[in-house]
Amino acid sequence: MKIKLSVKYMVMGLLICITGCTNLDENVYDIIIADTFYKTRDNVIQGFIRPFEHAYWCVSGANFQIQENTADHFMTANRQGHWLDGQNYFRLHWHTWTIDDNNPRDAWNNNFQGIVFCNSAIADFNKLNAADFDMKDEELDNLKAQLRVLRAWFYINLLDMFRNIPLALEFPDENIHPSQVTPKETFDFIEKDLLEVLPLLDIKQGSGGNENKQGSWNKAGAAALLVRLYLNAEIWTGEARYTDCETYAEKIINGEYGSYGIASRWDAAFDWQNETCEEIIYAFSSSYGYSHWVYDANMFWWGAPFKAAPYFGFKDWGDMNHRYGLQPGLDLLGNEYSFENGKPVVKFKKYPDDVRLKKYRNLGNSTREGMFIYGSLDYINDIGEKQFIRADNDKYMLFLRDQVGWFEDTDTLSISPNPSSGNPVMISDIDHADQNSGWCLIKYPIYRSNDIGKMESDYALIRLAEIYYSLAECKFRAGDKASAAKLLNAVRYRYYPEGSSSLYKEDGSQITEQELLDEWGREFIGESLRRTVLCRFGVYTGEWWDKQKETDDHTTILPIARTILDANPNLVQNPGYPDNK
């Protein structure tokens, strides 16, 4: 079982700052006091790691919810009383959130708390003499540079979600209330900081994955954040920067920042040994006995039906919980919906020989096939009998469909709910789902309890595939469809058998803007990018399942919560939302 160095130090840091991610109302943010804490080299590493643990946790909190539950792939439906939760998820789905809702507030607080952690550690390290801790100046400078990259990542999240934010570059004085700066000022700060630290960061050595440096920011990681920044510059600041995006994407792909490559296996970047996968540019380290937020209840542990754990053969954590399902592509008569976006299963089935469409199954010895669960879910019980997963109340056997409704015990051959389901009318919306409603995405493997790889997958924050797709989009927007097709196929080849007609034609003639958007969706489904992509393509306020086209685009920027406005009188509410009065 792998236990990477960074994971060990994360736990050491958590023991020092044990309340860091559990009390979000604290005022001092559990900042380490430099004059009394830093005594040894290990103390320096602990102070360095603390913001990284918060960042990993931050991914599984509001960031994932905002990126996925407000977009067109995921849903958190009312499953006959499960996940109604005051209609919070309805408002996320419909883009009708208020300034009192938790998710926008938490997204703001969590990311700014991470910035404070980074600023505090940087300020502490600026006071240290490297030699006093058996370190070289270059090593301490590298740690500070990594913290600046992590801070840039937090700022990119905030710029994407809120646009109009303060710049907090020092430890906060409770008597100072910073004002917002323009999106361009925030963009320029992020760009400048990333460009300044590039020379101070390590370059990846050798081929293969990051190995024991998984979780460390290097030159390729910083350059990848520049690619994200430039790709979204037009929607964030009004100024297109596609040429700059191309420049840094090509540097990464051409190996200027180290050796990376597209994995031949589609699941290699998500598998339990993904620290050896050369496709991963940056990942947060995970281990069964340590941090594993990717499998937390806020993410993929609650991405399968309530009683589905026996299907995977993982018995360590008890029941699952169907918080996340995939939005349907078919109505209750079995017809495909007419709207363009959403319908993730339909979009995958456009290329039916895609290996990811196989039903997820564990094959033994920490291996798997398939990326979705659907239909009936069978397993062998402890006495060797074949059983099927049932609803949490044991009322019916599950048969997961690419539809949403009250199917309950409807015959598996029937495309529509039968009367015994208790559904008096044919309704398919977020308020009328049962436990059969929607396929489930299993992107990170849930291996058996006796497998060495159980819950060991690192969370892949940035993959080389994203760099290829970003460059392909730049080429497409410049009118070079042939180059876009070549770049996309360099990733897509692994999903189809040799000679498949599913690969794009060399001239790129199949690639329309809609197809490119759909392809972003297929490649990065469930990877906390979807909202950003929809905004960039100008369709975030459009129509998909149980969501109407909006009358304006103010929801492409989130509101600042009432509690945040109350705490800082210098903040101005984002356009289209009420203030805190």
Structure commentary:
- The chain is mainly alpha-helical and 581 residues long.
- It has helices at residues 5-16, 34-37, 41-69, 88-94, 102-126, 137-162, 183-197, 219-231, 233-237, 242-253, 309-312, 344-349, 464-477, 481-492, 513-524, 530-536, 562-567; strands spanning 74-75, 280-284, 325-326, 361-362, 368-369, 372-373, 378-380, 386-388, 440-441, 459-463.
- The chain is built from 17 helices and 10 strands.
- The longest helix is centred in the N-terminal third of the chain and has 29 residues, at 41-69.
- It starts with a helix and ends in a 14-residue tail after the last helix.
- Residues 1-30 have low confidence and may be disordered.
Condensed summary:
The protein is mainly alpha-helical.
What layout of secondary structure does this protein have?
Blueprint: H1 5-16, H2 34-37, H3 41-69, E1 74-75, H4 88-94, H5 102-126, H6 137-162, H7 183-197, H8 219-231, H9 233-237, H10 242-253, E2 280-284, H11 309-312, E3 325-326, H12 344-349, E4 361-362, E5 368-369, E6 372-373, E7 378-380, E8 386-388, E9 440-441, E10 459-463, H13 464-477, H14 481-492, H15 513-524, H16 530-536, H17 562-567
Antiparallel strand pairs: 1-3, 2-10, 4-5, 6-9, 7-8
Low-confidence runs of at least 5 consecutive residues: 1-30
Mean pLDDT: 92
Strand order of the largest sheet: 1-3
The span between the termini is 54 Å
